From TrEMBL:
GO terms for molecular function: hydrolase activity. PANTHER family: AB HYDROLASE-1 DOMAIN-CONTAINING PROTEIN, HYDROLASE, ALPHA/BETA FOLD FAMILY PROTEIN. It comes from the Bacteria. Keywords: Hydrolase. It holds the Pfam family Abhydrolase_1. Coiled coil: none annotated. This is Alpha/beta hydrolase. Residues 44-142 form the AB hydrolase-1 domain. Signal peptide: none annotated.
Amino acid sequence: METKDDELIHFEAHGAAPLPPAVSEGHVEHDGARIWYAAYGAGPPVILLHGGLGHSGNWGYQVPALLRSGRRVVLIDSRGHGRSTRDSRPYTYELMASDVLAVMDELHLEKAAFVGWSDGACIALILAMTVPSRAEGVFFFACNMDPSGTLEFHPTPVIDRCFSRHASDYAALSATPDDFHPFVEAVSLMMRTEPNYDAADLGLIRVPIAIVLGEHDEFIKPGHAEYLARSIPDAQMIYLPGVSHFAPLQRPAEFNAAVITFLDGIGTPGNEGLRR
């Protein structure tokens, strides 16, 4: 039966679907943090980058679909999130992007496609902008690239349920399980003040990009998403109907279909992205 959880009632109570057994799993020591990763399957690599305050388990509905499509899937917990640690420095998207490169080096991945959700989308686009040789393409879902792109915050029951799940998952997974509120404050400061990229920066991107937004996104201005699509050469603009900022959890079948269509369009048959 098709999963549909528009109000995130199931997600709050149970989380996303459990992840399958990993082929490899571990931590990379990088720049003051221990970064958790897991890899699944074989084939062209795709790296999934989760949203702020979440963790890689939020991709539980996406991993099996990508494995069935014949891809190698890599999950990374952003520094300070999930099973990854952090030092005392403020969060920055650029620092988290450097952590992704450290995991790629550990796994001998020369190049990968990225699927980013919210903060993870920003991290992925920074990688496409700054190290294009490592990026096959970016599926950029539900994020901004400068602070003007966000809507005024209004709490909703759906947001509250997601936040509740994040709090319980943080307590269960983090090396600092009692520090959820300082963690939220630190990540929220980054979200309010970063990223800060302009149209000239975006115009330098030369890898395939899809700018993707849910019809009812609670955080991102539709006009900002359209501006990103206009500013990035040859970028696609994709709207996902009937969903919000939480589309991978709300209607995973539709979200997964959009991801796989994008990946199929950029993929090189037989290219598994391994460093030779």
